[in-house]
Amino acid sequence: MKKEVVIAGAGLVGSLLSIYMAKRGYKVKLYERRPDMRIAKAEAGRSINLALSDRGLLALEKVGLADEIRKIAIPMHGRSIHTLDRSVAFQPYGKEGQYINAVSRSELNTRLLDFAERCGVKIFFNHKCTAVDWKKNKITFELSGSEIQASGPVTIGFELFFGADGAFSATRLQHQLQHDKFEYHQYYIDCGYKELTVPAGPGNSFLMEKNALHIWPRKDYMLIALPNPDGSFTCTLFVPFEGELSFQKLTTEEEVTVFFEKTFPDILALIPDLTQQFFHNPLSSLVTVKCYPWAREDKFALIGDAAHAIVPFFGQGMNCGFEDCRILGELIGRYDDDWKKILDEYQRSRKPDADAIADLAVNNFTEMRDKTADPQFLLQKKIEARLHEKYPDKWIPAYSQVTFSPQIRYSDALHNAMRQEAIMQEVMKTPGIEQVRDKDEFLQAIVDRLNVKPLTLNP
Ligand SMILES: Cc1cc2nc3c(=O)[nH]c(=O)nc-3n(C[C@H](O)[C@H](O)[C@H](O)COP(=O)(O)OP(=O)(O)OC[C@H]3O[C@@H](n4cnc5c(N)ncnc54)[C@H](O)[C@@H]3O)c2cc1C
User: Fold this and answer.
1) In order of start, what are the domains of the chain with their CATH numbers?
2) In this predicted structure, what is the pLDDT of residue 41?
């Protein structure tokens, strides 16, 4: 008999996990603390749109959803870099035909919930998990909205339970509080973020290049923008919380306007109600969470952000959570219903990969903010792109390994990225590099520095 599965959190990862489990023949109950976003048009969570890339798409493909989601996505073929002098330069993300996808978080979540229900998943909204009794295998939910009962909170039993309740997971806390030697690390970066909207132009036209992720890199500050199907763009503004020019100091309309005039002059004309948006929209923080163990015997595991929250600078948090579901799906296939083995291997294999993408994401923060406008960095990227073109199996830029190569584990991508970066740091010291950069012997000498070892492939 297959165990009955309970999942806390019907966000992106919990919903996809429920589909994987239902497709494997499990009876699944999905509990979500918020109201049904499809009826209440409730706030879907952090960030209005997201970049979905090949790892996420592969996980969706395994349950037959990739084509449906591609239809609601906008391809972004590269970065449009906006400089202070208002010029815009386009940097492709990878080779011809490689791109990432802007997708609305609420639309994606809605499709996943609809599909989960079609697969037989029973969803309970307004159910907030507040306590877990690991000895008796019982979970308690506080009810809200239309679900409130005179008798108070509801307690249910469980056989197999997943915590997919996000970065500030209540299930993780319950696991941690009743676990000997539970490791927990949480780091905040010094920047906060606010979302702003560039409205659509006449007839839902796009006021900037539609098929690109826009970046305004300004060392201490950064603005990015992703396109939405209605012609608007969702911008995310990253600014330090404290310091000389920080969110703390941007307290009046005039201060905000002057800041934008000096830092992002071209955006002012695109957002007529900029200051209203700035003061109305919430300021949020960005956290990395690393913890272990993720699993408990044969009955519980954390998944998605609940297991590994990361900063968004590689656009991989959701993609990584979707990959968790895919790997778990493969392990169910391998070990049948032996959940002790499945969960042991799930956490053992995913933990190094989650740690690696967490570190890569923090590194990419510096790269996006400080370096995307630096000519030396751009030259390095051009040389690396040329190396990839000439030696596609030997030199794969770190971004491509993470974004377009789901067969490469994140942990290998990190290792390879560090090795390649060390080599490039030396190479960039070559005198007269501009003159030799396209020469065959120059490129060959770089590749020769790689002591190529076989990669461990994802299952
Ligand atoms: C600004 C920003 C931009 C991002 N951009 C990208 C991107 O471009 N690409 C990408 O791949 N990732 C991106 N991410 C990361 C991505 O948002 C997360 O990795 C992803 O949402 C994780 O999904 P999840 O289901 O694990 O968690 P969540 O999306 O947080 O979902 C958790 C769900 O659990 C529910 N819940 C919480 N507590 C309880 C409880 N006690 N009981 C029951 N339910 C509960 C919540 O209401 C929510 O529905 C970004 C993140 C941020 C902050």
Assistant:
1) 5-72+105-185+288-364 (3.50.50.60), 186-285 (3.30.9.30), 374-448 (no CATH)
2) 62
* Residues facing 104 on adjacent strands: 49
Pocket of ligand 1 contains residue 55 by CB under 6 Å: no
Residue among 19, 50, 235 whose CB has most ligand 1 atoms within 8 A, to mutate:
50
Rounded CA-CA distance 459/456 in Å is 9
pLDDT at 358: 98
Question: What atom in ligand 1 is closest to the CA of residue 165?
Answer: 34
Q: What is the pLDDT of residue 177?
A: 87
The number of the ligand 1 atom at minimal distance from the alpha carbon of 51 is 8
State in Å: Cα 370 to ligand 1 middle: 27
Q: How far is the CA of 304 from the centre of ligand 1 (A)?
A: 8
Residue pLDDT, tens place only, 2-16: 899 999 999 999 999
Q: Is the CB of 192 under 6 A from ligand 1?
A: no
Protein residue whose Cα sits closest to atom 39 of ligand 1: 165
Q: In the 8-state DSSP scheme, what is residue 92?
A: E
One-letter amino acid at 295 equals A
Q: Is the distance from the beta carbon of residue 304 to the nearest atom of ligand 1 less than 6 Å?
A: yes
Scan for tokens 């309740």, then name that residue. Answer: 165
Specify the 3-state DSSP secondary structure of 114.
helix
The reported pLDDT for the residue numbered 44 is: 43
Q: How many angstroms separate the CA atoms of 330 and 160, rounded?
A: 17
pLDDT value at residue 110: 97
- pLDDT < 70 positions in the chain: 41-47, 452-459
What pLDDT shows up at residue 46? 56
Distance CA 397, CA 153 (A): 51
70-74 long-range CB contacts below 8 Å, 24 or more apart? Answer: 70/101, 72/103, 72/104, 72/107, 72/108, 72/111, 72/229, 73/101, 73/102, 73/103, 74/101, 74/102, 74/103, 74/210, 74/211, 74/227, 74/228, 74/229
Ramachandran region of residue 162, left (φ > 0), alpha (ψ -120 to 50) or beta?
beta
